[in-house]
Design a protein that fits this description.
The chain has 3 domains: 114 residues, ATPase, nucleotide binding domain (Nucleotidyltransferase, domain 5, 2-Layer Sandwich), CATH 3.30.420.40; 145 residues, 2-Layer Sandwich (Nucleotidyltransferase, domain 5), CATH 3.30.420; 45 residues, no CATH class. Helix 5 packs across helix 7 and helix 7 crosses helix 8. With 321 residues, the chain is of the alpha/beta class. Strand 1 and strand 2 form a beta hairpin.
Length: 321
């Protein structure tokens, strides 16, 4: 029976699933929109994995993303890692000499700086939506342009148009004003791409030394207008990897593979049948000290299978899935 490793990246907008073999070769990538139901999407995605790899044995599981703890509890993950670690690990697997990682997802963005294969600095922006995939989707819908054509149209612009990109509200207002002045959609979209790149670099790359090679990943990396704007602003080539949209999940799978191969331990994967059982998440405030931590607890069959959020480990210590 073939052995495989599973990587899962549960974010605010999407759930990404990756299967790799023991050599680190990617066998399957899947991108699913959460549509506000990440638990349902996770169950559906795992049903597809079961059907496609019925004759394979899941040897290890890794989870990442904002929903990594919950996904790890549901699946029985062998390793749970943050997005910075997962994205960096995947990037270095395919591009060992990478120095800078630009990552823009559905509702957040991050930058990762690497020296000699080690993460030396990073920054994340989870507050401002300007430049993220959801904002670009909204603007494409408002302009009645398919998001798939958004970037290509930007490349056809003949004149420069400056758009205020520091805030989604200001950007949209400025775009409307420029439309009223008679600028073409291509020129406005190109101006938006340049504004969003400036905003990204001002927020995340301020006082940081960005080196080449530069790798651009996350869903927005599909937008060639944004890629071109980054290349103009940084004056260097920007590389978009083949699996740009699921690099976090690939990193999680690779980290699970390394963990299992290094320790020789058996996987904690709970099995496909466990996914059909009801999971009940709830929150409460711990009043044990002045931290007043918000504790998130997940129950399955009246048994607590996962707890996180406690800084001291009072509630999460000793929990086994």
């Amino acid at each position: 029976m073939d052995k495989i490793f599973l990587g899962v990246d549960v974010g605010s907008v999407s759930t990404n699933i990756v299967i790799i073999d023991p050599d680190g070769q990617v066998l399957l990538t899947r991108y699913y929109r959460n549509d506000g139901q990440p638990l349902h999407v996770l169950k559906e995605s795992m049903a597809e994995v079961r059907g496609l790899f019925r004759n394979s044995l899941i040897r290890g599981v890794g989870t990442t993303g904002s929903g990594r703890m919950l996904a790890g509890a549901i699946l029985g993950a062998d390793i749970v890692k943050n997005e910075i670690t997962a994205h960096a690990h995947a990037t270095l697997h395919f591009h060992p000499n990478a120095r800078t990682i630009l990552e823009i997802g559905g509702q957040d963005s991050k930058i990762i700086l690497i020296q000699n294969g080690i993460v030396v600095d990073f920054a994340m922006n989870t507050i401002c939506a300007a430049g993220t995939g959801s904002f670009l989707d909204h603007q494409a819908e408002r302009l009645k342009i398919p998001i798939e054509q958004f970037g290509e149209l930007a490349l056809t612009a003949k004149n420069k148009v400056k758009i205020a990109g520091r805030c989604t509200v200001f950007a949209e207002s400025d775009m409307i004003a420029k439309q009223q002045f008679g600028f073409s959609k291509a020129e406005i979209i190109n101006g938006l791409c340049e504004a969003l790149v400036r905003n990204y670099l001002n927020n995340l790359a301020r006082d940081k030394q960005l080196g080449s090679p530069v790798i651009f990943q996350g869903g927005v990396a599909a937008n060639v207008g944004i890629k071109a704007a980054f290349e103009r602003e940084l004056n260097t080539q920007v590389i978009v990897p083949e699996n740009y949209q699921v690099m976090g999940a690939i990193g999680a799978a690779l980290l699970a593979r390394r963990q299992i191969q290094k320790t020789g331990q058996q996987t904690q994967f709970r099995g496909y049948r466990q996914l059909n059982q009801t999971l009940t998440p709830q929150t409460f405030e711990c009043k044990g000290c002045s931290n007043r931590c918000e504790i998130i607890q997940v129950e399955q069959n009246q048994k607590v299978v996962a707890v996180w959020g406690d800084k001291c480990g009072k509630h999460s210590a000793g929990i086994t899935a």
